[in-house]
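FW: tagging you since you asked about this chain on Friday. Here's the raw sequence from the shared folder, copied in full. Didn't touch anything.
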Amino acid sequence: MSSPQSLPTHRDVHRLAVPMILSNISIPLLGMVDTAVVGHLPEAHHLGAVAVGAMIFSFVFWGFGFLRMGTTGFVAQAHGSGVEGAVQNRFGQAAVLALALAVLVLLLHPWVRDIAFGLVDATAAVESQARRYFEIRIWASPATLMTYVLVGWFLGVQDARAPLMIMLTANLVNIILDLLFVLVFQWGVAGVALASVCGEYLAALTGLVLAFRRGGLGRHRWQWREVLHLDQLLEMVRVNTDIMLRTLCLIFAFAFFTHQGARQGDIVLAANAVLLNFQHLMAYALDGFAHAAEALVGKFVGARNARGLARAIRLTRDWSLGIALFAVLLYWVGGDWLIGLLTSIQAVRDTAGSFLPWLLISPLISVWSFWLDGIFIGATRGRDMRNTMVIALLAYLAAWWLLQSLGNHGLWAALMVFLAVRGITLGTLLPRVLRV
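HL: got it, structure written out here
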């Protein structure tokens, strides 16, 4: 592992990015297994219930993703600073925050449940089973939020293999227990939810064991006065709140896209859903290099190493752009084939094909916001991320208001405006990060 004063290399970027890409890819694979297991039950409402329940938790837990991002930036800077015990203290602060939020979620979960199901238009049979799923899986909240902290902590100390092991543990346990609880014990939707809970807790336990045994967490005597230092805790809360607001804006942007697509009919809605899968596929790869940027930028900001910081920014930019160019080539050569893999409905295939050109330009527009997000997370500049996201969201809504007469083409054009403004506004603020 390179020292805080040495310059980063391509190998450093790959060491961080590749395991995180593999971790990201494992997430949709687990969803496919859940779907396949429940899909073999006799009634279709079981499948609908799992889909609705999983969607609710995706939004709930995605909103807490700031725990992972904020922890990475603070820990990476502590790691780069070389101050004894600083990395350990930052973990303690993030863990205290995560557990406090988990307790809050459990206390408020009846209101969260009622609001969520009030927004979901589902049949009585689906909602009944989805509520069972919710009431079981909500108890995974402490483990889920602690796992976010652990993944962020490992990235902050430049270890991307441990997060991969954590995710593989969660997914393998979940898959095995899915098969046992649903196909053998016949527990149905409740079995799927319980499998997820068990997977989350074993993943958190795996992360803690790795952190203490391999990551050196606990190497220094715990300084609880430092861990509970009010100013540092408030700083972490402030940065995480900014990142949370930024994330909520991002969630709203894509929910708005889906809503406006739905207003244009089922075929357009389905076609957009197919094409957004392409966007998500690219995001898994770009996120890997964004994670590398978080860890490396935070390390060199903490070490006040301007040369190392500049090189880390340059290396992660080049690899992110390379991934974007590969995505353009993939969609250009194999776009129609990929659409055919995702749907056999000819009307949806034809409609998706007519909007495929937007996916050809999307990687070259969105790559900058992915890459810059990683840099600003590593530099713990949450306020800049929040402000630029708000500006981008307003530009997005304004663009749609101006272009809605163009139908779905106008909707995709507005989304490109949103992605472009995110990159442009963050790019204009990049010189602030370089001043270390």
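FW: The chain has a mean pLDDT of 86.
HL: agreed, and Residues 240-436 form one domain.
FW: great, closing this out.
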